Amino acid sequence: MQFKTILRISSILLMLFSVTMLPSALVSLLYSDGAHMTFILSFLVLLAIGFVLWLPVYRYRGELRTRDGFVITIAFWLVLGLAGSFPFYMATATDLSFTDAFFESFSGLTTTGATVITGLDDLPKSILFYRQQLQWLGGMGIIVLAVAILPMLGIGGMQLYRAETPGPVKDSKLKPRITETAKALWYIYLTLTSICAFSYWVVGMDVFDAITHAFSTVAIGGFSTHDASIGYFDSAAVESVAMVFMLLSAANFGLHFLTWQNRSIKHYFLDPEYQYFLMIFGAVVMLCVGMLWLTSTYDTLGSLRYGMFETVSILTTTGFAAADFSIWPLYVPFLLILASYIGGCAGSTAGGIKVIRFALLFKQGVREIKRLIHPQGVFPIKIGNKAVNDNVIQSVWGFFAVYVMMFSILMIILLASGMDFLTTWSAVGASLNNLGPGLGEVALDYGSISDVAKWTLTFAMLLGRLEIFSLLVLLTPMFWRN
Fold first, then answer.
1. Is the backbone of residue 50 left (phi > 0), alpha (psi -120 to 50) or beta?
2. pLDDT tens across 389-412, in order?
């Protein structure tokens, strides 16, 4: 294990992260909200800590191995989660305990969107900007940004990319060099964010809200600058823009790359996983809208408007709210939370188990039924026109088994802490799937639950963000053997 290399990389990334405090300080000065010193002090403290850690190992050069990449990935999220909590803990406007500050920071970085803060409309603009910025940085994975920068510092990044990149197939690259891959992804990410912000501004948001909501929309994070979330604007046009960019961000970013490279949108409609995603979306929309209309929760247009928006928001694990879906007829909230377990496509900023895994699980189930009827038959599983290797099927089943096991363990812990079943089930699902809003006590915020529950759910957020195995592998004795 290259501990000196790990320390060197972590300290460099901490120093780089400290710079992200400066935009919020500038926003504070621009709006004269009095919170600028919170971010300046955070910047100086984090920069100093990173520099002190870097100084003893700055000359050390060592080749990263795959195991080192996993350690750095986990350490990086934990360190930045702690570093990101500084402004929340220090700011007098938020008045958060250490647990709440860390929870809010980690929720932002993992793009979960679960919040312990209320009274958002009265907070300083700089704090609001900082929350949104955290989600934007976490959206594509800060590690992917790091591998575009670290080669310039003499550090290779392929191991980090493999540990961070979501999806069942981790070895595919858009370009031959990992640095070029990371840069391409970030150019696409930045372009989507810019177009989204401009679109929000065109349909009526002010510049501040347009930029900050673009951050959380493309990141599929769900933080808002208002307690009422997207519902604050009460605008079908704003909701339409949000839906378009949530659906785009839930697609594999490789599709965006191919679309940009070939100047054609046909790849979205030819990709089997995105086809499955759109079919699932259409089915859930019909069920949700139909129930809202049949129960007279809204009129026909209202049922279509709010049912479609909440379906997009929850299915993509964004967590924006145009209405309080937790008070809808009970069938609908459960349906939407269940949809979040599927989530978006592999290689997207969405959470959840991922559409490709659910498609493979379904096809494997169908194959087992066929084998019962024709024991000697050969039934290959295909995605599109390509047969899927049985090793991939086995890894998906392994992932699903561990997912169910971890979900059960986390539920038991929360139930033991005194939470009711509805709150526990939705909170674990919302955290593990990086969704955010749940049902029961956590329908609006997570401020009322116990510290034990918050730390448990923080662990669940990290599990979900790293798709379980990248974190659990560190807990096995075999990993630490030479």
1. alpha
2. 888 888 888 889 999 999 999 999
Per-residue pLDDT band at 238 (split at 50, 70, 90): very high
* Non-local CB neighbours of 364 within 8 Å, separated by 6+ positions: 381, 393, 396, 397
CB 320 within 8 A of CB 435: no
Nearest to 435 by CA among 125, 186, 221, 291: 221
Model confidence pTM above 0.85:
yes
How far apart (Å, rounded) are the C-alpha atoms in residues 294 and 316?
A: 25
Per-residue pLDDT reduced to its tens digit, 370-391: 889 888 888 888 887 888 888 8
CA distance 360 to 355: 9
Q: Which of 76, 88, 84, 90 is nearest to 41 (CA)?
A: 90
pLDDT tens column, 263-288: 888 888 888 889 999 999 999 999 99
Instruction: Tell me: pLDDT of 26 over 60.
Output: yes
Rounded-to-integer distance, Cα 196 and Cα 98, Å = 34
What are the structure tokens assigned to 9, written together? Answer: 């990389």
3-state SS track over the chain: CCHHHHHHHHHHHHHHHHCCHHHHHHHHHHHCCCCHHHHHHHHHHHHHHHHHHHHHHCCCCCCCCHHHHHHHHHHHHHHHHHHHCHHHHHCCCCCCCHHHHHHHHHHHHCCCCCCCCCCHHHCCHHHHHHHHHHHHHHHCCHHHHHHHHHHHHCCCCHHHHHHHCCCCCCCCCCCCCHHHHHHHHHHHHHHHHHHHHHHHHHCCCCHHHHHHHHHHHHCCCCCCCCCCHHHHCCCHHHHHHHHHHHHHHCCCHHHHHHHHHHCCCHHHHHCHHHHHHHHHHHHHHHHHHHHHHHCCCCCHHHHHHHHHHHHHHHHCCCCCCCCCHHHCCCHHHHHHHHHHHHCCCCCCCCCCCCHHHHHHHHHHHHHHHHHHHCCCCCCCCEECCEECCHHHHHHHHHHHHHHHHHHHHHHHHHHHCCCCHHHHHHHHHHHHCCCCCCCHHHCCCCCCCCHHHHHHHHHHHHHHHCCCHHHHHHHCHHHHCC
Q: How far apart are CA 119 and CA 93, in angstroms?
A: 10
Both tokens of residue 53?
């850690």
Among 386, 213, 238, 226, CA closest to 305: 238
